[in-house]
Amino acid sequence: MAPRETISAWRPSVPGVSEVFHAHFTEHAYPMHVHDAWTLLIVDDGAVRYDLDRHERGTPNDTVSLLPPQVPHNGSPATSHGFRKRVIYLDMTQLDASLIGPAVDGPDLTDPLLRTRIGQLHAALATPGDELEAESRLALISQRLREHLRPRSAVAAGAVPDRSIAHSLRDLLDERYVEAPTLEEAARLLHAHPAHLVRAFSTAYGIAPHQYVTSRRIDLARRLLLDGRPPSEVATAVGLYDQSHLTRHFKRVVGVAPGQYARTTRESRR
Fold first, then answer.
1. CA 198 → CA 111, 159, 192, 193, 251, distances in Å?
2. Residue 116 contacts by C-beta under 8 Å, 6 or more apart in sequence?
3. 139 lies in the same domain as 233
4. Is 180 a domain residue?
């Protein structure tokens, strides 16, 4: 029989994320407690009821819940079969203390795009080697959360895409796509906010920065495979985590696995 309570937890090497926590609880009820980080919560099955600042809240209909740091809350299953949840704990670099009050007033957000992006972020955080993708997705999520919590007039400032910063980021990625800079490092070098970098680049080129880096790496991998180098060696040479990481991205871009690609090219020479 499968365990009634299951969890997994880890700390990814992505700035701004202090912990990722996945859980399936059928009976566990959290007592009143606090965190020193923002709790970004989605529920995949069932529902959770909780109290935040003496108000009863819940997670119905595919909402996104954002529980602020330093504010007591509890949590318990709202259905007989419990709930499955995925949580990302965000540190104060992503959302500052000025947003705690608005989050207390409205912690449950109905935003299908935000929920989709959070699911994509969870997938990236679970895959070693996809840290740049995770950083890019996190930057857009944090910006969208700020848009929910701040007046629209404050969000509108600085929202115009900047092609010059997009060009500068492309130059940086072209120079360093094997050992790509983190989004945080790129933002520091180019004196821009990470979310602004992602939006400007995506608007200018129709592709996200992490997708651009991956495509450059796969192009290099193709050349190295044609030179006769084995896939395991190619993966490291192009900056990917391991051979399975190379295979996943290579198949998505090229349509076949690296080994099959290399064999096909060898056979065509006979």
1. 20, 12, 10, 9, 25
2. none
3. no
4. no
27 and 108 housed in the same domain: yes
Q: Are 122 and 88 in contact (CB under 8 A)?
A: yes
pTM here? 0.82
Q: What is the residue-level pLDDT of the chain in tens, covering all 270 positions? A: 445 788 899 999 999 999 999 999 998 888 888 899 999 999 999 989 999 987 888 877 689 999 999 998 899 998 888 899 999 999 999 999 999 999 999 999 999 999 999 999 999 999 888 999 999 999 999 999 999 998 654 444 444 556 899 999 999 999 999 999 999 999 999 999 999 999 999 888 888 999 999 999 999 999 999 888 999 999 999 999 899 999 999 988 888 899 888 876 554 444
97: which DSSP letter? Answer: G
Find the domain containing 90 and state its range. Answer: 6-144
Distance between CA atoms of residues 11 and 211, nearest Å: 24
Domain boundary among 103, 122, 144: 144
Residue 186 lies in a domain: no
Coil/strand/helix, residue 10? strand
Residue 111 lies in a domain: yes
Three-class secondary structure of residue 224 per DSSP: helix
Token reading at 93: 């670099």
| Contact assessment for residue 111 and residue 144, using Cβ atoms and an 8 Å cutoff | yes
> What's the number of domains the chain is made of?
2
Tell me, yes or no, whether 140 and 216 share the same domain: no
